[in-house]
Design goal:
7-stranded antiparallel sheet; 3-stranded antiparallel sheet; about 10% helix; Flavin reductase family protein
Length: about 200
């Protein structure tokens, strides 16, 4: 089949997200200027550069108690910092609980039963038991086409890695089962990996 998005796809469910998979989940933690912590998962997330290390995530949709975007976007816009936490298999339920739409005055950490820890380089909390957390300073906040679509790019200024996730000097995502988003309401847990050398290696 072929379709133009502006004309619609004619299927029971939109196939777009299912085509771009798997997508690692950026479990983004932020803090408001009032000191209220926020935690929310974003599946439009990835790394974009090595030196300096930079990551991106996209925020789509808005909230009635925000002028634009969601609490995560509002906090980053005001404070200029955020933390990306990796989601492991054992934290699926907590991650999902943190996706619930709450008032900006509510802290998702206790609501989702997630233990928080302080970041080192930025004023923000992180997920204490996450296999890895990336402390970031805002580099760019880019409005995208469409209502309430924004791209957030951050420079990584601090990296936390849980010791049991390091195997022979490598961060091993199969050790803890990295959770990734597929299409629709589907997810996957990465348990297997293989090495493939490039022709120029």
């Amino acid at each position: 089949m072929f379709y133009r998005p502006e004309d619609g796809h004619g299927l029971p469910h939109n196939p777009f997200n299912a085509i771009i998979t798997p997508r690692p989940i950026g479990w983004i933690s932020t803090r408001s200027t009032r000191g209220i912590d926020n935690l929310a998962p974003y599946s439009f997330f990835n790394g974009v550069a090595y030196t300096p290390p930079q990551v991106m995530f996209a925020s789509t949709g808005g909230k009635s108690d925000r002028a634009r975007g969601k609490d995560t976007l509002g906090n980053i816009d005001q404070t200029g910092v955020f933390c990306v936490n990796v989601v492991e298999a054992e934290a699926i339920n907590e991650m999902n609980a943190s996706s619930q739409s709450l008032a900006a005055s509510d802290d998702e950490f206790p609501h989702s039963k997630v233990t928080k820890a302080a970041c080192n380089e930025i004023r923000c909390s992180r997920v204490a038991l996450s296999p890895a957390s990336l402390e970031c300073k805002l580099s760019q906040l880019v409005p995208l086409e469409g209502e309430d679509n924004y791209l957030v790019i951050g420079r990584v200024v601090g990296v936390h890695i849980r010791d049991d996730c390091l195997v022979d000097g490598k961060f091993d995502i199969t050790r803890f089962g990295m959770v990734s988003r597929l299409g629709y309401r589907d997810y996957t847990i990465i348990r297997d990996a293989f090495e493939l050398k490039r022709p120029d290696d």
